[in-house]
Amino acid sequence: MVLAFLVGLLSGFILMRLFVFDGAGKPLAPQIGKYIVVNLLALAQTLIISIVFARWVLPAMGIVQYVEATAHLIGVLIPVVTSYFGHKLLTFR
C-alpha cells in the first residue's frame, strides 16, 4: 500500500509538471518538497472531512446507508479542488 502511494505521488508529480502546470525549467527539488507538503495537507483534509461527514453530517441528514463510502467520496472530491490551487499557487510557481 505504501509503495502504491509513492508510485501515485511520483506519477502525479510528473504528469502535473509536464501537462498541467508549467514546471519545466524551474528547480526540481523545491517543487518536489512543495508537492509533498500540498499532498500531505490534502491527505489530512480527506481524513478530517471523511470522519466529520461519516460521524455527524450524513447521520444528521438522515443518511444511514453507505455512510462511510459516501463520506469518503466527499472527502476525496473536496481536496481535488484545494490541491489544484495549492499546486498552482505554491508547488509549480
| Low-confidence sequence ranges | none
Number of strands: 0
Report the radius of gyration as a whole number of Å.
Answer: 16 Å
Query: Count of DSSP helices?
Result: 3
The level of helicity is: over 70%
- Which word captures the global form? elongated
Amino- and carboxy-terminal Cα gap: 31 Å
Mean pLDDT: 95
What amount of the residues lies in strands? Answer: under 5%
Main beta-sheet strand count, sense and barrel state: none
User: Structural class from helices and strands?
Assistant: mainly alpha
Q: Helices and strands, in N-to-C order?
A: HHH
Question: Would you mind describing this structure in some detail?
Answer:
The chain is about 85% helix and about 0% strand. The protein has three helices and no strands. It has helices at about 1-20, 30-60, 65-90. The longest helix is centred in the middle third of the chain and has 33 residues, at about 30-60. The radius of gyration is 16 Å and the shape is elongated.
Summarize this entry quickly:
The chain has helices spanning 2-20, 28-60, 67-91. By secondary structure, it is mostly helical. The mean pLDDT is 95.
